[in-house]
Design brief:
The complex is a heterodimer. Chain A is mostly helical. Chain A has helices at about 5-10, 10-35, 40-55, 60-80, 85-95, 100-110, 115-135, 140-150, 155-175, 180-200, 205-215, 220-235, 240-260, 260-280. The two termini of chain B are about 35 Å apart.
């Protein structure tokens, strides 16, 4: 019986293998040619790279890819005006925060048969409007729109941005209220963010927002847990990452003051395990912090 | 850490910086400091950002941190505790919050560009001077960066510096140490900074 190794060295096997190799190579070349030659594929490729960059906190690189997505889609639409291209163009415009352009793209996608296009266009337009109102100083009206989008939007990029603005806006408002009113407002805000977490548990940013609100409620243990969750799941930018580390340290200090001795010992053990796994120099020094 | 390698990387970057920003020596440390952080974190893509947005765009959330967070920030930093002793004693949250907006990105988040821009004041613990001059200094830095003679050359120099830092395989915890060495090397190679 010829063993596998010997078989691989026989001239006929080499010839067959070589022929298979060239067939596969040829097929690969054809596929990559088709992929490169299809404008839709090119647009998809840029968009996927943009998303990939966002996942790795490469916001500037992501921006470049979303810009390329938009340019490639605009060019492709001239010869092939299909709904998919308008959707990709709109998604890239959302990332570039070009709200009215995104609204137009989604509307056109809808007119070409993309059912969600109408709803997305309306949500993007609303977000753009809220932003303009905020810039004009009409923060109350802007806040109402963010509130609506956080509750009703089915379009994740808009929900995420609206949640960020809504939390900032509501926290700012809470400073102007009496203690009791403030408590009610913060509770409502937390519930709103919690429902977002339920739907998108993997989204570290929502856990970060939740941790920030809990600190306003002086619920430091829960704020700490949410900040840990945010750290483990990932955050969109370096500055938010560092702010979240600061939040963890702040909660650690507050709990040191608040917890009973036995509870503190339990907490400290957990904290030590976490910071060891994160590579912190000590309880209050993440690697990025100047000593 | 291989100091001679850092020395070489700084000198290479300085050659270009002196060429494209001959009169703005105050920008060398902020730019190299930021490139250093990106180099340590392998953020090769962010060199364009070094020019476009010199500082991190901090969110509106910084303005709405809870009072306890702000008090903790001032109380646990020895320099701030001393400088803002009166405000802390009187629990003057209004003044502390105003100061916090400027000082938190700098001392809380260690924003690398701001750290470089205010390194002399930070060294002398002149925190109130930082707050007073913050906006003007940042506006000036933005203006000077916008009118740089060769943007391409500057980005290329910073990119090379970033790559040199990455190649040195410095541990992330070495950021503070490398920053200190960076200051030392710049002090040796440059005339004393101009007074504002």
């Amino acid at each position: 019986m010829v063993n596998d190794r010997k078989l691989r060295t026989t001239p006929s096997f080499k010839k067959r293998a070589s022929s298979e190799y060239f067939k596969i190579l040829g097929l690969g070349l054809v596929i990559s040619f088709l992929a490169c030659s299809s404008p839709l594929q090119e647009v998809k490729l840029y968009f996927t790279r943009g998303q990939e960059s966002l996942r790795h906190y490469n916001s500037a690189q992501a921006r470049i890819y979303f810009q390329k997505t938009k340019e490639a889609a605009t060019a492709a639409i001239k010869s092939q005006p299909v709904a998919q291209l308008y959707v990709l163009k709109g998604l890239a415009e959302v990332q570039l925060e070009e709200w009215s352009a995104a609204r137009r793209s989604f509307s056109l996608a809808y007119s070409l048969g993309f059912d969600k296009g109408e709803k997305w266009a309306a949500e993007v337009a609303l977000f753009g409007l809220a932003q303009s109102l905020g810039e004009l100083g009409l923060s109350q009206q802007a806040g109402q729109i963010y509130d609506y989008l956080v509750t009703r939007s089915q379009f994740e990029p808009v929900t995420l941005l609206a949640a960020q603005r809504y939390v900032d806006f509501t926290l700012e408002r809470s400073f102007t209220l009496e203690e009791r009113e403030k408590e009610v407002l913060l509770r409502r805000l937390l519930n709103r963010v919690r429902s977002l977490i339920k739907e998108n548990y993997h989204q570290g940013f929502y856990h970060y927002l939740s941790s920030q609100i809990l600190a306003h409620q002086q619920l430091y243990r829960r704020s700490f847990e949410e900040a840990v969750m945010a750290r483990e799941l990932g955050l969109p930018t370096e500055e938010i990452w560092r702010d979240n580390d600061r939040q963890i340290i702040f909660c650690f200090r507050q709990l040191k003051k608040d917890l009973l001795k036995e509870d503190w010992q339990d907490f400290l053990q957990l904290y030590q395990r976490l910071i060891t796994s994160w590579g912190w120099a000590d309880e209050e020094t993440p690697p990025w912090m100047k000593r | 850490m291989a100091l001679s390698k850092l020395d070489k990387a700084v000198n290479n970057a300085l050659k270009i910086l002196k060429e494209v920003l001959p009169d703005q020596t105050y920008l060398y440390l902020p730019l190299l400091s930021r490139a250093l952080v990106w180099g340590l974190r392998r953020y090769f893509h962010r060199q364009a950002e070094l020019m476009a947005t010199p500082v991190w765009p901090w969110p509106a959330r910084i303005k709405v941190k809870p009072d306890e967070f702000i008090l903790d920030f001032f109380q646990t930093h020895s320099g701030l505790r001393r400088e803002f002793a009166t405000e802390l004693k009187n629990k003057d949250l209004k003044s502390l919050r105003e100061a916090f907006v400027y000082l938190y990105p700098l001392l809380g988040l260690n924003e690398p560009f701001l750290w470089g821009l205010f390194a002399p004041e930070l060294g002398r613990q002149e925190y109130r001077l930082i707050i007073r001059t913050f906006q003007d200094r940042l506006d000036r830095a933005r203006r000077d960066l916008a009118s740089v003679s060769s943007r391409k050359k500057l980005i290329s120099a910073l990119k090379t510096f970033q790559e040199d830092i990455t190649a040195m395989a410095i541990d992330l915890s070495g950021e503070a140490e490398v920053r200190r060495s960076l200051v030392k090397l710049l002090q040796q190679s440059l005339p004393p900074p101009e007074k504002d």
